[in-house]
Amino acid sequence: MGAPSAARRRALGLRFRLTLSYVILFTILVLGLGLLFRETLDYTLQTNASAILDEEWAAVKGYLRVERHRPIWFFDRDDQEEAFIVQRLRRVFLLTDALGTVLEVSPDYVELGVESPGQVRDILQSGKTVDRTRYSHSGEPFLVRTGPHLDDGRKEFVLSIGRSLARERQIVDQFMQQYFAVVPLLVFGLGIAGWAMAGRALRPLNDVAQAASSITGTNLSLRIPSRGAGDELDHLIERFNAMVDRLEHSFTQVRQFSIDVSHELRTPITAMRGELEVALLTAKTVEQHREAMMTAMEDCERLGKVVRTLLQLSQAETGQLTLASESVELGAIARDVVEQLLIAAEEKNLQLTTATDPETWVRGDQVQLERLVSNLISNAVKYTPEHGKIDVSVRAKDQEVILEVADTGRGIPLEHQPRIFERFYRVPDGEPNPEKGLGLGLSFVAWIAKVHNARISVASAPGRGSIFTVAFPRIDARSEPVLHPGDRIVA
Ligand SMILES: Nc1ncnc2c1ncn2[C@@H]1O[C@H](COP(=O)(O)OP(=O)(O)OP(=O)(O)O)[C@@H](O)[C@H]1O
Ligand SMILES: [Mg+2]
After folding, report:
1. What pTM was computed for the model?
2. Which atom of ligand 1 is least distant from the CA of 407?
């Protein structure tokens, strides 16, 4: 129960984290947008207000005259509209002379604070009209425009008019209040939607985990069905299934291997037991006993050989065998091995020839390379009937060194060719074979070729002979500065 609940907790954690990231991102976005709206609204309203102020500024200059240091408003007093306009213009209003003496000021302006003589001087010096936002005692904002005014015989005065921004402020505040009242609701809604979405997105992941947990060593045929969405998860499933494929293949191989091993060991043991039993019951003379013992010994030897070779092969394939990495001349190895096998070949009246190029250097382990060559040539000797011919050649071709062992022997039927490199695989030949091999030689050859980055191939036709070819990467022995006899080659 522990594992599923832990998996559930993990999935929950991931779901929660996903949702949380949505919510945080969204909240930041919504808040940012809100502030942006506010700034835009504020800016628009301000621009609007200052446009109105432009008109009012022009209107003031139209209605106001200063004569003998006194402000006079010129307008048609019977025109109600004009009277109203002038009244509005004078609501937030200040007029001073160049020394800062107030000529006219409205009560609202007094509340904002009348400019000091120093400020008046600065304004006249700069000669510029400036807009500023100022606040009354009650905190009401006003947009105030202040600037020089020429009149009364080209004398300089300072003129200030203003507009209350209370309405604009109120609009912005109202917008903010409404907007930010909705934000928590939005975020909450999104949280719920995000939670549901994350759950949906993660469901296939949980399905995959469940399917994976039902795959066991004895049940490797199970595959996780693809969802057909072609997305990352399908890719994961595909990779996962491929991994199970490989596992299944290895498991089958291991199982087959154990069956083969037991079979290989049982046959000589059964034979030995039978012979000894018969001898025990029927042998009378010393000679008959001796014979039974001799046969038993032969079987024992074969058993020992199987076990020894298997052990070496397992060590090799699991990488427990330390391999040297040195410059080796393959041609020399071929000549040596041929020399060792000449007697065996002569016994069968076989013609064994060698042809080697100079400078056939490869990088690898001398002992293992000898084993490879020896296995191939002894197979040729073993599977070629009397008066046959075996040609061994080592050629240096471009970037490769090519070893070829060609015989005129019995050949290998096409359907068996892919399997001869498997452990214990022997081509069934129909006739009882007195010197039956173990079927392990070519497994070794294949492994040695692999760790030397060599390609191995076979061309053969029944009754016409076989050609085994191994192509090694060629090295230039002179450019090999240091030899490392102890170096390992990684399989
Ligand atoms: N040159 C060849 N001509 C014909 N058949 C061959 C040749 N080389 C290999 N074979 C076939 O391939 C099989 C596998 O060869 P392999 O060398 O692995 O095993 P083996 O020779 O039977 O036993 P050992 O383990 O003693 O070498 C042989 O049993 C034989 O049937
Ligand atoms: Mg062999």
Report:
1. 0.57
2. 1
Q: Whose CA is nearest to atom 17 of ligand 1?
A: 441
- Return the pLDDT at 2: 45
Specify the pairing of strand 389-397 against strand 400-407. Answer: antiparallel
The end-to-end CA distance of the chain, in Å, is: 41
**How far is the centre of ligand 2, averaged over its atoms, from the C-alpha of 112 (Å)?**
111
| Residue pair 472/403 in contact by the 8 Å Cβ criterion | yes
**What residue type is assigned to position 293 of the chain?**
M
Position 319 scores a pLDDT of 80
Distance 413 CA to ligand 1 centre (A): 12
At 450, is the pLDDT very low, low, confident or very high (cuts 50, 70, 90)?
Answer: very high
- State how far Cα 183 lies from the chain centre: 38
According to DSSP, the residues that pair with 393 across neighbouring strands are 355, 404
The reply to whether ligand 1 has any atom less than 6 angstroms from the CB of 466 is yes
All domains in the chain, ordered by first residue:
2-170 (3.30.450), 232-317 (1.10.287.130), 326-479 (3.30.565.10)
Distance set, CA 121 to CA 125, 127, 128, 192, 306 (Å) = 6, 10, 12, 64, 115
Kindly state if the Cβ of 438 falls inside 6 Å of ligand 1: yes
CB atoms within 10 A of CB 268: 19
Could you give the 3-state DSSP secondary structure of residue 264?
Answer: helix
> Is residue 23 within 6 Å of ligand 1 at its C-beta?
no
Centre of ligand 2 from the C-alpha of residue 399, in Å: 29
